[in-house]
User: What shape does this take?
Amino acid sequence: MLRLFSAAVVALATVAFGGTYEIDSSHAAANFSVRHLGVSNVTGTLGQVTGKVMLDDADPSKSTIEASIDLKAIDTKWAKRDEHLRSPDFFDVEKFPTLMFKSTKVQKVSKTKLKITGDLTMHGVTKPVTLDAEISPEVANPFSGNPTRAVTATAVIIRQDWNLKWQAPAEAVKVVGDEVKISIETELVIRPAAPPATK
Assistant: This one.
């Protein structure tokens, strides 16, 4: 009975005040969209998303986010285009295989919405970016029992700011747009601490 009571107290404290979560890579995706020829959008996904998120529901300004995304696994459903995006013309993934984000400021907008400002490092360049984020209430995963919540974050960046400047020669149209829309969907999970090693 005491064990059940203690577990309930821990669960309530987590809901009220947040906690330190891992990004659940199996339930996470980083998507992007960019204009092509000024008339349509090319969409794609990046690779595995990993990281840690410390959420303070009582004072969101104390929250912190660190995440990394694998760029080698970029996928636009067209192999030749994906190879070009991985090449030195764009991401140059052999030199810069990972996109990294580290928050510098978290602002509460509403009960479920945050503005997350941080440093985005990509292609060897670090620039500030602000994400509009929406966070779900916490639930208990019915399979693992782990406290779980979801975050959706969006932003628009100018690719040239990160030295992604390739452009096909064309007189009348811009082949690749300057603005890139980013959308990240992820579940966050608090995993139980590993039991101490026995002697």
Remarks:
- The two ends are 29 Å apart (CA to CA).
